[in-house]
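Many introductory courses stop at the sequence. We go one step further.
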Amino acid sequence: MLIRKPKVAPTAGPFVLSATSLRGIDLTTGILRTSKGLYAGAIKVRGIDIEGLRPADQETVYAGWGAAEQACELPRKIVLCETRPDLSSQRNYILSALSTQQNAFRKSLLERQLFWIDYYQKNQKDQTGYVIFFSKDAKEVEDAQKRYIQHAGSSRISASVCDWKDALELSQTLLSTPDHL
């Protein structure tokens, strides 16, 4: 008796992004290219404590997010994840101040500050979301990113276009996630 292996299920559609479907990153815009001929551009949305806000402020955040979602007609995915903060600029500033400091007490304060920056870099996690837009035209992706940020900016939502470093971080997140997003 022959035992047949089950066939691999096809993906849900052309707008499913996985680490294996990535083919490149445009270093000037941060737009990803996929194996299916699509462009994927992402918006990075930093976490916000909605529960800690007053009800009127909560409504403002919800309205801003809703307006941003309705402003973009392209297919999109929302990826929520935890990321580590990038404190490299603060670290570099402390290191440059430390190299020129002559006062022993101030030097010890700067060294303590450097310790805390390294500690937070290793141990702190931030809530981050990515909104990934898909299109066959890179210009459409860029326009959707701008519209989304413009509509989200009216509330307390901190959103920015992913540059190539953010796109690389998103790719690493995809690689660490076993399922398709």
